[in-house]
Amino acid sequence: MKEQVEKVINEIRPILQADGGDIQLIGVDEKTGIVTVGLQGRCGGCPHAQLTLQAVVERKLKEMVPGVTAVERV
């Protein structure tokens, strides 16, 4: 599961980098399906970060990786 999550995050990364941000995979809890990420650069302090996290990152991960239930930011 972790490898699949990493692959999807690497596909999303250029979108965030285009706006001066980035995303780092912190962990994947395969029992609960919760993916933990860190937002960096402009994404780290952006007021729209939570929206980006849910509308882009979480949606794409749930769509592409069976078992992902949520994405949390640390």
Give the C-alpha Rg.
Answer: 11 Å
**Strand numbers in spatial order across the main sheet:** 1-2-3
How many separate domains?
A: 1
Q: According to CATH, what is the class?
A: Alpha Beta
Quickly give the structural class. Answer: alpha+beta
End-to-end C-alpha gap: 20 Å
CATH architecture: 2-Layer Sandwich
In CATH, the topology is named GMP Synthetase, Chain A, domain 3
SSE pattern, N- to C-terminal = HEEHHE
Largest sheet: 3 strands, mixed
List unreliable stretches of 5+ residues: none
Please, what is the average pLDDT? 93
CATH superfamily: Fe-S cluster assembly (FSCA)
- Amount of helix: 40-55%
From the spread of the alpha carbons, the general shape counts as globular
| Total beta strand runs | 3
- Helical run tally: 3
Strand content: 25-35%
